[in-house]
Amino acid sequence: MQAFTERRSPGNDDALWICEHEPVFTQGLAGKPDHLLLPGDIPVVATNRGGQVTYHGPGQVVAYPLLDLRRAGYFVKEYVYRLEASVIATLAHFGVTGHRVAGAPGIYVRLDDPFGHAALTGPMPPDDPFRGLGKIAALGIKVSRQYTYHGLALNVAMDLEPFSRINPCGYCGLKTVDLSTIGVSATWDEAATVLAGKLGVYLAP
Known about the structure:
- By secondary structure, the protein is of the alpha+beta class.
- The strands form two sheets. A six-stranded antiparallel beta sheet has the order 1-5-9-8-7-6.
- Helix 3 crosses helix 4.
C-alpha cells in the first residue's frame, strides 16, 4: 500500500483492496506498548497508520481504500465518516444496527440488542464509555499527499480470543464481537461483497 501510494500521481485510478490476514497484531503510530498485554505466538507488526493496537485474523474482512481525496472532493474527517457509514450500511444489510461513539473511531453494537434500532442517547459514562457495547469494526487510516491507505476491519466469524491479549484500540476492557457471536450467519465472501459494494457507494465523489 505504501509503495502504491508513493508512486501515485493525479492520473492514477483509485483502488479498493479487500483481504483476509493471517493472525497478526498491528500497532499504529501512536501505539503504546502497554496496550499489548500478552501477544504470545502472534506476531506484532508496527505500521504507519493512525490509532493503537488491533488484531487481524481469519474470518475478518479487511478493506483498504486507496483514494485520491482531492479527486473525491472531501477531506479526512468526512472520509472517516463515510468509512463508518459504509460499515453501518453493511451491518444494516444483515439486520444489525451499528453505532458511532464520539471520540472512538470504529463501529459498535448493543450487546443486549444488536438488532434494535434505538439510537445511543446521552453521553456515555466517563468511567465506562463502552458500557453495553461491543466493537465490531475498527478503523485505522493514513493519508499522504491527499492519498489514503490502510482502512478498516469488519469482524465476521473469527476466533476472538486474541483480542483479550490487547487493549483493543487502546481501550482497556473493550469487548470485541463479530457477526457470528451476535447471531448473524454470514460467510466471509458474503460480508466482503456487501462491504465492498457499500464502500463503492459511500466513498464516491
